[in-house]
Amino acid sequence: MDNYLLKFLFKNKLNIKKYLLVTLLLSIMYSFFSNVYFQSEITLYPAGELSSSTEIYSDFKDAIESFGFESSNAENNFYIPDIIESRRLKKEIVYKEWNTSKFSNPVNLIDYWELKDSNIFSRIILFIKNTFNSYNFNSKLKYEEDAVQLLDDLIFVDEKNSGLIEVIVLMDEPQLAADIANFISDYVIKYVEEEQKLFARKTKVFLKTMLDSAQSELKESEIDLTLFKEKNPLSLDTPELQLERIRLIRKVEVNQEVYITIRKQYELSKIEESKERLFVNILDNAKPSLYKEYPKRLIIILCFTFLGTLLLILTESIVFRLKNIIKQLDS
Known about the structure:
The chain has one domain (35-294): Bacterial polysaccharide co-polymerase-like (2-Layer Sandwich). It is 65% helix and 8% strand. It contains 12 helices and 4 strands. The chain has a 4-stranded antiparallel β-sheet with strand order 2-3-1-4. The radius of gyration is 36 Å and the shape is elongated.
């Protein structure tokens, strides 16, 4: 095997030099013509249980759900990576107008990437789709989908074992990458805060409905007891009247206890709605990168040259071996 390999290398040393030179030139061209990306990153850290206020509503969970409200948002933490990777956030980023060095006026990412200025081949495809599709082809949605897919490849989320969440954004311009990364952190904080307040607001409305109902029942039971006492003085009580009196008093006490309990919960819900909480900590804000992150030209040139040359040598070796086998068969 060693003799065969040495024989092959010696016989094809000129071709190997050519392969090495070709792959080297190709790797250099690729590294210099590929898109340049700058990296910015932010780090987020959940401030604790986002559901710290759920103790207030634990006694009313079943009632809240039967009323049509979902209590899961208050019971579980928001999973921040899902928020960052959501299409909703990416659409916000795509359609927000950004200040860039490429354009004098703020533009959205569809215009920044010039997705509307497609080449002739892309226009032909769009024309075919418009012609043969039975439905009206929406080119705006097509540009949006393309932009979201591009953005999806440029945003990376990494959750550490400690709970720390690192968000990396790659863009053609360092300041644009930093602006998008900081926008993501602001969006996450605002989203979590609004969702928590929305649940607290719905819970307060529900408790207010229960409170009004409990107050009405308490008033009715108090009126019934008052009328009974007016008609039946205590000095004229009979066993039957005593039993009825006890029932009316018990009904008032129960309704009063229910009213007091719901009233406490209602007052706490008002506090929860107005309370300002820090559910997500921003440990590091994004800053413009001083150096490009991609492509790493030296690594690309070395790896591409080595692997390309190795592949070409392997292919040539197989062809050389096959030719020898065919010669042996012919002889």
